[in-house]
Amino acid sequence: MDPAVTSRQLQALTVGGSAAQWDAWGFAVDTTRNGLWVGATWIQLQADERGVCGGSVAGTEALLGLPPAATRPPEVAGSSGREGDANPQHPNGVTGIDHVVVSHPNLEAAESDLLGAGIEIRRWRDVPAASLRQGFAWLGDVVLELIGPTEARPGNAAFFGLALTSSDLHATAAAFGPASSEVRDAVQPGRSIITIDTGPADRPKWLAVMSPHPPRA
C-alpha cells in the first residue's frame, strides 16, 4: 500500500449501540471513553443512535458531505507507533474493518469530490439486475464501498453499512448469539459472511462480519 493511500486512513467512526451491548458481543470496549479500537480505526459508540452516523478520514474535512465522527481518536499507539495496534484482536475474533458502505445519489460528483481529497476510485462494478454501480477506494487499510444509481439523482450522501473482519467467523457468530445470521458464502469468492440483527426488525441490517481474504495464489 503506497503512502498516498495510508495518508487517507479512516481514523474514526461514530456507531450506534451502547458499550454494554458491544461488550456482550465480545468486543474489548474502553468503557471510560465509550468506544473501541477496531484495527487502526476508533469506533465511538452512541447508545441513542443506530448504524454508522459519522466518520473522519485523515487529511480531509467533511468527506462527501458526510457528518464527521463525534470525537477524535484517543492518543493510543502500539509497538509499531500506529494508533490502534494496542488492541489488534477482540475476544470474539474480530481483527479489523473490511469496508464501510456509503450511498451517494451522484457517483460522478462523488468521484470528483474523492479525487479532490486525494482518494482514488480503484474499481467500478455494475450491480447485476439493478440500476446501481459500486465504486471501491482505499481509506488506509479500510475499503470505501460507494454505491449509487447509474443515473444521477438529487439527494445527499449517507452511511449505509459497516463490515468487519474476523479470524474465526464461527466464533464471532457464536459471540453475537441470536443476533447473528448463519455463516454463509459472501459475494466475494472464497469468503464467508454473517449479518447482525441490531434491531428494530423493520430497519435494514447495517452490520456484517466477514472471513479474511483468502491467500493469493
Unreliable residue stretches? 1-5, 77-85
Which structural class should the secondary elements be placed in?
A: mainly beta
Strand coverage percent: 25-35%
**What's the N-to-C terminus distance?**
19 Å
Strand order of the largest sheet: 6-7-8-5-9-12-11-10
- Please count the helical segments: 4
- Rg over alpha carbons: 17 Å
Could you give me the name of the CATH homologous superfamily? 2,3-Dihydroxybiphenyl 1,2-Dioxygenase, domain 1
Count of discrete structural domains? 1
Helix content: 10-25%
Q: Can you tell me about this structure?
A:
With 217 residues, this protein is mostly beta strands. The chain has helices spanning 3-6, 19-24, 107-116, 169-176; strands at residues 10-16, 35-38, 41-46, 52-57, 94-103, 121-126, 132-139, 142-149, 158-166, 184-185, 192-196, 207-210. Strand 2 (35-38) and strand 3 form a beta hairpin. The longest helix is centred in the middle third of the chain and has 10 residues, at 107-116.
